[in-house]
């Protein structure tokens, strides 16, 4: 009996395969005005070791930093491990990323809403923890006004 040879190819990890398949719907398809505001806000919860969370986050951020949209990918109050060096090591397009830290009277939520409303970012990623209903509404409204996407990431939940 003769078996046909299957060409070898590199194997993606489970998460990379999932992300490669699903990220196109998040980063490259513009929202239509008729679509629900709830689609402008996404949330993701990552738990486990810091290293594992970074491994899961890197391909998402890389994809968003290379989005066809010419606007910024904005990171609001990212964890201290997400430095310019980390972005470089993980192949992110640092020329398309803004890293913003809240200062003075502006908290992370205010900063995220301003970044979303400005229209200068295609996606604003924040690390705000668990969101209540009022905060979700603020982020959705700001994202709609700026024709942007909002992604909140919860770590260690």
Automatic annotation (TrEMBL):
Q: Which branch of life, at top level?
A: Bacteria
Q: Which InterPro entries match?
A: Cell_div_suppressor_SulA (IPR004596), P-loop_NTPase (IPR027417)
GO terms classed as biological process: cell division
Show the Pfam families listed in the entry: SulA
Q: Extract the SUPFAM superfamilies matched here.
A: P-loop containing nucleoside triphosphate hydrolases
Q: Which UniProt keywords apply?
A: Cell cycle, Cell division
Q: What is this protein called?
A: Cell division protein
Organism annotation: Stutzerimonas azotifigens
